[in-house]
Amino acid sequence: MVVVMVMSLLLLLAQASAAASRAAAAADLAALAAADALRGVSAGEPCDVAAAVAARHKATLVSCTLGGGQSVEVSTELPAGLLGVATGRAKAGPPP
After folding, report:
1. Contact indicator for 3, 63 with CB cutoff of 8 Å
2. What is the domain extent for residue 20?
3. Number of domains into which the chain is organized
4. Low-confidence ranges of the chain (pLDDT < 70)
5. CA 66 to chain centre
6. Helices 46-56 and 2-39: angle between axes, nearest 10 degrees
7. 44-48: which pairs have CB atoms within 8 A and are 24 or more residues apart?
C-alpha cells in the first residue's frame, strides 16, 4: 500500500514537472516570436503573435507587456491535469 502511494506521488511530481517545463517553453517561444514581431523581423502585432505561438503549444497567453528597448515579457498558463495550471514567464529582446 505504501509503495502504491509513493509511486502515485512520484507520478504527480513528474506530471507537474513536465507541465511546468511545457509552460516555460511556450512562454520562451512566445516571447521570442513577439520580440521578432516588435523589431519588424516578422509580420504581425507582437502580442497577437505571442498568443498564436502559445496556442500552438496548447498554452494560454495570460499577459504580454512591451518594454523599453524593444523587449517583450509574456506569461503563459497550461492545464496540468489534477494539479491545476502550470505557469511560465519569459522576457525576450535584442542582445544588450
Report:
1. no
2. 2-92
3. 1
4. none
5. 16
6. 150
7. 46/72, 47/72
